[in-house]
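re: ur msg from earlier - yeah i can do the adenosine monophosphate complex, just paste it... oh wait u already did. ok heres what im feeding in:
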Amino acid sequence: MASCLFCDIAAGEIPATQVHADEDFVAFRDIDPKAPTHVLVIPRRHVTGLDRLGDDDVDLVGRLLVTATRIASAEGLTGGYRFVINCGDDGGQTVHHLHLHILGGRAMKWPPG
Ligand code: AMP
Ligand code: ZN
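and the outut:
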């Protein structure tokens, strides 16, 4: 596999400000935050994106969501938050390792750009 930025972050080979780590997931602050709180949650396993998930990944995705809600709570986002998963070029995905954005600390607009 070609080198992957988020695999390297999960392995601790590239520094990031981690806010959560467990057996399956790592969460760290986005280097270019789009909101006062902007955390990325990734599975340790390299999955390119949403469009590469299969039936065997249902449990992983469920736990990704639940883990993210717990991180949002730990971040003190009592007023609400937004989860975003970009997929592919039209979805605005720039890093091809599945990641969920937790955005919070300000009111979000709709629709997104
Ligand atoms: P996406 O556009 O959905 O693929 O999101 C990729 C995100 O990764 C962007 O919000 C970037 O700011 C963020 N990012 C890129 N490099 C790093 C890094 N080294 N550490 C933390 N976040 C990063
Ligand atoms: Zn990866």
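cool cool. The pocket of adenosine monophosphate (ligand 1) is lined by residues 5, 16, 28, 30-32, 40, 86, 92-95 (CB under 6 Å). ping me if u need the other ligands too
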